[in-house]
Amino acid sequence: MSASNKGFYGERKQTTCAYCGVGCGLDIELHNGKAVKLQGAESHPANAGRTCVKGTHLLDTLGEQGRLLAPQINEQTVSWNQATEYVAERFAQTIAQYGADSVAFYVSGQLLTEDYYVANKLMKGYIGSANIDTNSRLCMSSAVAGYKRAFGEDVVPCDYRDLEQCDVIFLVGSNAAWTHPVLFQRLQLAKQNNPNLTIVVLDPRVTATSEMADLHLQLEPGSDAGFYNGLLAYIACQGLINNRFVSEHTDDLFAALEKAIAWTPEKVASFCQLPLEQVQQAFQLFTSTDKVVSFYSMGINQSNSGVDKCNAIINCHLATATLGKPGCGPFSITGQPNAMGGREVGGLSNQLTAHLDIDNAEHRSLVQNFWQSPVIADKAGASATHIIDKMLSGKIKAIWIMATNPVVSLPEGDKVIQALQQCDLVVVSDCVDKNDTLAYANVKFPATGWLEKNGTVTNSERCISRQRGMIEAPGQAKHDWQIICDVAKAMNFSGFDYQHPQQIFDEFCRLSGEKNQGQRLFDISAMQCHSIEQYDTLKPQQWPLKTNKIGQLQYHRPFSDGRFSTTNGKARFIAVTPVLPELTAPQAAPRTKAQQDTPSTAQISLLINSGRVRDQWHTMTRTARAHQLNRHTSSPQLSIHPTDAARLNVDDGQFIALTSRAERVVLSAQITSDVKPGQGFMPIHWNRQFASHANAASLYRTVVDPVSAQPQSKQVLAHASKVLVSAQLHIAMTTELAEQFDANRLSFSQRCPQQGFVQFSLYQEQQSDCATELIDSLQDQFKAQLKWLRLMSSADGQQRLIAMHGDQLAIYVDYQTLDNNAVTAPPNSQWLSELFAQNELLNQHKTALLTGQVGDKFVNGEQVCSCFNVYQKHISQAIEQGANTVQELGEKLQCGTGCGSCKPELSRMLASADTNLIAMEKCQ
Ligand code: SF4
Asked: Are 141 and 154 in contact (CB under 8 A)?
């Protein structure tokens, strides 16, 4: 739905969202230098006024709290000069002693293009190494390599408009409803306007996206290349190859067909574990129209054979000539806000810049001449996981990590920690003062964040937009491009005298056009901004750009002329041999004493998949600051099928431990038939800042695609076993006190920030006095400033305590020993919110806290709509009262009428109410 920009009264500026690769434009209202209102920008082509729940709550993430405010060396605050000189000197010394390849940068799709450009320039053109890689390696480097192999250039051949113009769309390895919600909203609307639009979803799980599908293929995890190879064979056998296009514009069809032809529908059905009829139906749908889109993301890319999967998809579009035209094409969607900008500047260690190749001597000399740089890297550098290996072997001795959190996101987090501990110099630039990676930094650089940073980003459809700085940065935070240029200048390099990001953007635009002559579609030289004013007024612009017959510059759909960026202008089919994920038997999990004493605690093997939840982003450093976003999924959960839950003897909410390597993760069970038996799904977001044992990446072994070096982060085999909890401790305390509280004192713990307070849940496995000792030490710690009240029930081992600061609630403790592993959910956060907000806590509320009597009005189930605070109970009541559609629920409760992210869940609640009704009717 399109939000209106009504209600903006003050100064309004446009920027782009800080989260996903959709790249929505946002209008911000400013008052006295503060951002006071946010709405989706109607004029932005990506979203036309829409936002999702994460974008909607961006203003709640601002503020000084939790920000890194000054540079530090070895935990000591220092001046910018000292920090910059120190890093420059240490890098220069290391390079002088061990060579250029002894240093590395690990950067991020969160950086703006200007930051990215200067980091790449410094490493490749001045230090002379290509040891710069980006965390986008983890999300879309397979897509990059797939496009490059097929088209000769990393060019996404589709636009968002294609989602509205197609007849059939295949969503492959993508839960777009949660990961790219605004595109999903556009698709929902397109389907509403054109009921003939057919949606096919290929996903091992039932998701909010698959629920909208006309056909859901719940295929075997990682088997997608088999499906698309079979589709290519089907296209050939049915005589549906577009011979004219193939002969005039492509090469190597027969090599690809040779590998694909054996993939009959029967073979596909067996490989993908799908019913044959579904495979045949899907093949018929793909070939029923010229307007077919394959929309794919991390489920395809994060694989040991991600590049082949991408090419298997592209092969089918080449064979049917369904690309380069409206409403069709192989459309890879990026994860991060500026992953595409990173691809443009050459942020990966095997790229140069502006789509030029590092292994091409002509390209290298073009870039070096343009930069007038002393050197140019002449071979690919280390990729993300390779950097870690080289740190461990002592080959890389200094690393600078910018705007990313590799301890959480790279596979084998323990190995990453070891590498950071071993490395002589670890520099981290970040805007937060704490995360799992900053804990290992020798030098910390405070960087600016969203609404402070000023530059450009490029979204998944190649649209370059301004991300505008409009509020003051806190403390001494500096822009990333400034920090990089300051270090470069301190290293005595001369090409970094920029005063404003406009100058960097201008240079980058010029470089993209240098000696290009149409050889590379990435040519944005026409977007040069000669002045800050021009830069500040830059409107969102898609590339490629071409001059039309009357000399005007216009957007030109890639490959619409059938010419590709290869040397002979033809696209290439790639022969693909489908393989399944590389899985290693998990290490035997050590059993706790409680498990040993309880024979019923079986250990089973599960194939674990991971991904995003609706309201969180990456490692939660930003989203967890918006308390509304912590309510939809407030703790890390493992989705597990009822048959597996029965094998493990666990109930909903009880804990399950997963082990694949040395590390163990512990998650509460969410029992659901959304996942198949033998499989599990866990979120990627939780890390040590929010849960002591819930980091998905720590389960993953380092298995990478041989072409793209992208890690396989979607499938891992793990041992699962039931966790027996002997005591639980739910603690809520004001945000200020929470800063001083160490939650890591029982077996495992979770932390959930709320408005003005933080909720902790701590669990003890073995019988011990740890929990009661913790309560005693907590009382001791805050004895001087707080007055404690306690109610103990010796019968059931339950204790509740409250600590008052004057008349205000400061701490609430709910402790319980558990006989039958009967863990309970943390106290109701809405209830606590109301009580923590009171200036004078009434006696009746103190009694309610001490007796655990949550007011009826707060018992509402889970939050469904984060925009209007609508909970399950309200929705169920409205359905009982006759609301039959999502629209009617919206009219009654407003749910779904803000960002629309909750609409799939509303549909699900309506459908399950229908099912109940039918079941009841059948019983009568
Ligand atoms: Fe931001 Fe949501 Fe748009 Fe993604 S879909 S850019 S998270 S508002």
From this structure: no
Q: How far is the CA of 603 from the centre of ligand 1 (A)?
A: 40
**φ and ψ at 37, to 5 degrees?**
-150, 145
- Give the separation between CA 597 and CA 591, rounded to whole angstroms: 10
CA distance 512 to 508: 6
| Protein residues with CB under 6 Å of any ligand 1 atom | 17, 19-20, 22-24, 47, 51-52, 54-55, 180-182
Task: Measure the CA–CA gap between 190 and 885, rounded to whole angstroms.
Answer: 18
Alpha-carbon distance values, 905 to 61, 178, 295 (Å)? 25, 11, 22
Angle, helix 886-893 to helix 872-880, in steps of 10 degrees: 110
Q: How far apart are CA 721 and CA 456, in angstroms?
A: 47
Helix ranges (DSSP H) in 350-444: 361-371, 384-392, 406-409, 413-422
- For 345, the token pair is 């500047």
- What are the angstrom distances between the C-alpha of 857 and each of 631, 828, 873? 17, 11, 10
39, 42, 180, best to mutate for ligand 1 pocket (most atoms within 8 Å of CB): 180
The Cα–Cα gap between 666 and 723 comes to 8
372 alpha carbon – ligand 1 mean position (Å): 39
Q: How far apart are CA 361 and CA 348, in angstroms?
A: 18
Q: In this structure, what is the dihedral angle of CA atoms 243, 245, 251, 254, given to the nearest 10 degrees? A: -20
Mutate which of 15, 27, 42, 51 to test ligand 1's pocket (most atoms within 8 Å of Cβ)?
Answer: 51
What would the two tokens of residue 695 be?
């980091």
Distance 186 CA to ligand 1 centre (A): 12
Helix (H) or strand (E) holding 257: helix 253-260
Rounded Cα distance between 220 and 228, Å, is 14
Measured from the Cα of 19, ligand 1's closest atom is: 7
Spans in the chain with pLDDT lower than 50: 1-4, 918-919, 922-924
Kind of pairing between the strands at 679-683 and 603-611? parallel
Contact 397, 367 (CB under 8 A): no
Six token digits for residue 583: 């899985």
Which atom number of ligand 1 is nearest to the Cα of residue 16?
Answer: 6
Distance CA 586, CA 603 (A): 12
Count of residues for the chain?
924
- Round the CA-based radius of gyration of the chain to a whole number and report it: 28
Nearest to 640 by CA among 603, 607, 665, 591: 607
**pLDDT for position 602:** 79
Query: Reduced to 3 states, what is the DSSP secondary structure of residue 468?
Result: coil
Question: What's the gap in Å between 51 CA and the centre of ligand 1?
Answer: 6
DSSP designation for 711: B
Instruction: Please tell me the distance between residue 20's alpha carbon and the centre of ligand 1 in angstroms.
Output: 5
For residue 282, the CA-to-ligand 1 centroid distance in Å is 30
What is the enclosing helix (H) or strand (E) of 80? helix 80-98
CB 22 within 8 A of CB 183: yes
For residue 474, the CA-to-ligand 1 centroid distance in Å is 25
Cα 754 from chain centroid? 22
Quote the CA–CA distance of 851 and 133 in Å, as a whole number: 54
Looking at residue 3, what is its pLDDT? 39
- Report the nearest-CA residue for atom 3 of ligand 1: 24
Q: Please provide residue 370's backbone torsions phi and psi, each rounded to the nearest 5 degrees.
A: -65, -45
Could you tell me the sign of the dihedral formed by the alpha carbons of 199, 202, 206, 209, in that order? negative
| Protein residue closest via CA to atom 4 of ligand 1 | 20
CA 362 distance to own-chain centroid: 36
If one residue of 1, 24, 160 were mutated to test the ligand 1 pocket, choosing by the most ligand atoms within 8 A of its CB, it would be 24
**CA-337 nearest atom, ligand 1:** 6
Q: Using CA atoms, how far apart are residues 669 and 647, in angstroms rounded to an integer?
A: 13
CA distance 656 to 589: 12
